[in-house]
Design a protein that fits this description.
223 residues, Cytochrome Bc1 Complex, Chain D, domain 2, single chain, mainly alpha, 10 helices, 37% helix, 2 domains
Length: 223
Amino acid sequence: MSNASKRPSPIVPIAGVITGIATYVGVCITSGFAIVPTVDSVTNIGHGLSAPNRDVPYVAKAPVAHAGAGGAYATVCQSCHQADGKGLPGAFPPLAGSSWVTGDPETPVRIVLLGLSGEIEVNGTKFNAVMPPPVGITDEQIAEAVSHARTSFGNTASKIDAAFVKQVRGSLAGRTNPWSAAELAALRPAAGAAPAPAVAEGGGAAPAPTEPAPTTPAPATPN
């Protein structure tokens, strides 16, 4: 047998390379990630946003279990907004000192009920991401989580109860899509007013999503 007959066929490694390239391209296309990342796609510099933090925890969409006082916040909110309420730079906005949380109590309840999508400015910093609504969370747990955020991290707003969450839920008018910051700003009621009706899906234009000025908090509910 000649030496030429003992050499491995080049077809096998070439076929492997072709298969690998095809798989890589297919995964990139189906996943939506750029095949060749650019500075803009990695840093969001072109959009005027803060640099994203890539080392953020994965938040599974699982039903929320009750865990006692403050437990709903720890289960639903803490992995993104952190135990100290300061969030993660470039990824998740802070709750500490944010008038989106400490102003009217309807706004944070609306966000937990339907989620938030798009650009929002918090404490002078812009964020642009999607916050999905927690799965399987009850009105009691929403009241617990929102009350914790409104009364912790240096925040001194009033607590809310499950009856208030139910009232806000009833104002949604069947809406299911996430809020934009502009819609939330337009819906902020005067102090002491009932929750405003939700903007219907596909509604008209709303004002720019700048952080609203704090409003007088609603009366606190008994502990």
